[in-house]
Amino acid sequence: MSLPFVCAAQLPAQLPEHRWLIEQLWSAEAVGIIGGEPKCGKSFLALDLAVSVASGTSCLGRFPAARTARVLLFAAEDPLHVVRERLEGITTARGVEFSRLPLYVITAPSLRLDHADQCDRLAATIEKVHPALLVLDPFVRLHAIDENAAGEVAPLLAFLRQLQRKHHLAVALVHHARKDAGRSRPGQALRGSSEFHAWGDSNLYLRRRDRLLRLTVEHRAAQSPDDLTLELATHPLTLHVVDSAPAPDPSSQVPPAQRIEQALVAAIAPLTIRELRAVCHIRSETLCAALDALLAAGRVIRSNGGYSLAV
User: Fold this and answer.
1) What pLDDT sits at residue 255?
2) Beta carbons of 172 and 49 less than 8 angstroms apart
3) Element (H, E) at 51
4) May I ask the CATH architecture of the domain 16-241?
5) Residue 137 burial by CB count (10 A; 0-12/13-18/19+): exposed, middle or buried?
6) Beta carbons of 55 and 91 less than 8 angstroms apart
7) CB 70: neighbour CB atoms within 10 A?
């Protein structure tokens, strides 16, 4: 028996208004990674994402949810009372009534994606809840496989992809980056097999910069927004976007090359063009011209991770 097929012109089209679960942040029915080093706010971002979809409000106060829909969450590392406390804090900051939130939490003590019977139970739970978003936090608690072995990672990710396609839901998988990954590009810094980076349709990466966090957004089939600076606020404990400082007065601007060098001096790792543009507040055309001049003069060097000062 042959595989099903259609003429290309008969493939379904997606309307622009149906392309996002959360505008610019997470595509509709996308699988993906919320990644970062330990203790950099990944779980808070995952909960913010969940509350946004369940309440129809803007994630991080900046990115509107396309619609209000059910969410299913499994938080493997946090006690249930801590999960509740964090969700209440986010809903309070968002002005949402917590008791009416269609956000459902799996209370089983463990969930193993490398056990067929538990995969069946997860699928059955999804059948009952009909969520638009499934959040699993973190991946390391969902298995006993070797995360560096692509042959062991791929079947687990394929199962989640199968859930996404069968139930038309989005899947956000929280996953750790390597502790020494400061000089790597965000997607390449994820711990384990390269299957994780290749799997995601929408990926969110967090990196700590002192007390602030840098959020990088990556989409497979849409343009990604510029990096954002986040801060974990207290009372209530929530993530919020830190607006960039206003552009300096043109009459007192430091020359672009000097501003680039100042930014590289302060950086602890090479900076990409996107990061330099955000830090220096320089247009891409001006930035690239200044970088070319600095490279030609031997004042900066370029590597796979970005630009740094020449020693």
Assistant:
1) 86
2) yes
3) helix 42-55
4) 3-Layer(aba) Sandwich (3.40)
5) buried
6) yes
7) 16
The DSSP secondary-structure symbol of 60 reads T
Amino acid at 42: K
Q: Is the CB of residue 186 less than 8 Å from the CB of residue 218? A: yes
Query: Three-state DSSP class for 131?
Result: coil
- Percent over 90 (pLDDT), the chain: 55
**CA angle, residues 13, 18, 20, in degrees to nearest 5:** 125
300 contacts 310 by C-beta, under 8 angstroms: yes
Residue closest to 136 by CA, chosen among 86, 191, 173, 175: 173
- Greatest extent of the chain over all pairs of C-alpha atoms, in Å: 73
Q: Where in the chain is the domain with CATH 1.10.10.10?
A: 250-309
**CB–CB of 36/22 below 8 Å?**
no
Intervals of CATH 3.40.50.300 along the chain: 16-241
CA distance 224 to 285: 19
Taking residues 212-229, report their average pLDDT. Answer: 91
152/139 Cα distance (integer angstroms): 13
Do you find a cis peptide bond into 236, omega within 30 degrees of 0? yes
Say whether pLDDT at 116 is over 60: yes
* Confidence class for position 182, pLDDT limits 50, 70, 90: low
Integer angstrom CA distances of residue 253 from 25, 47, 66, 106, 262: 33, 40, 40, 54, 13
Q: Would you state the pLDDT for residue 75?
A: 96
What's the CATH code, domain 250-309? Answer: 1.10.10.10
d(CA 295, CA 118): 55
Report how far residue 213's alpha carbon sits from residue 277's, in angstroms, rounded to the nearest whole number: 17
